[in-house]
Amino acid sequence: MNVRPVMLFLCALVASCAANQESEFVTVPWQPANVGDAGTAARAYHDSGAYQRGLEVVANQAASWIKTHAPGAHQPALVLDIDETALSNWEIIVRDDFGRPIAGAADLASAGPWGWAAWDQLGRDPAIVPTLEVFRVARAANVTVFFITGRPESQRAATERNLRAVGFGGYAKLFMVPNGAHFASAVDFKTPVRIQIERLGYTIIANMGDQPSDLIGGHAERKFLLPDPFYRVP
Ligand SMILES: [Mg+2]
Q1: Fold of 37-88+126-225
Q2: How much is the pLDDT for 2?
């Protein structure tokens, strides 16, 4: 069977259908991306393995940078974000269908939705393994590791227990948002903390997060942004 004519016919059919479909609708010239479609695409991105490969691409570059630059830096430091950087919340992300309700229970026996604050208190997040590798490379190179998270102080015990349980023991300090404090952007909380770290004499050779707001504001020699199409932290 000659495949080429069949392919040409199918292409023509698809093009014709698309054209017909287009002309069927009276609609507006532009609207934002459809949230349902975005959710479907994000789930496929995760489940296909593309997300994992993306994490590895960025983390491998961070590890190489640290290996190369730690030896020549004065008191080298690595700054890491926590959620979707060091720890994965995929279980609640899919359970909440990409919503982010903060209040409410996280009763694992129920179908959900689960509340994120209660979820964080469970301390059951697995590690983002490519970031764990970066952490290990940093510690082996005598780089001091600081975590800066948007999680509140009320979650300190559960968060520190979670970090240690999955392999992140050996960090110097975890900076958390004071209870009751609110910041319009994570930049407003995280940048001053990095300045504080520098004032202790450290050189932040790398800052890694999953949100631009983890990285904007400077005070790091190189910034590494992991993929995260699942939610946005302003
Ligand atoms: Mg994060």
Answers
A1: Rossmann fold (3.40.50)
A2: 47
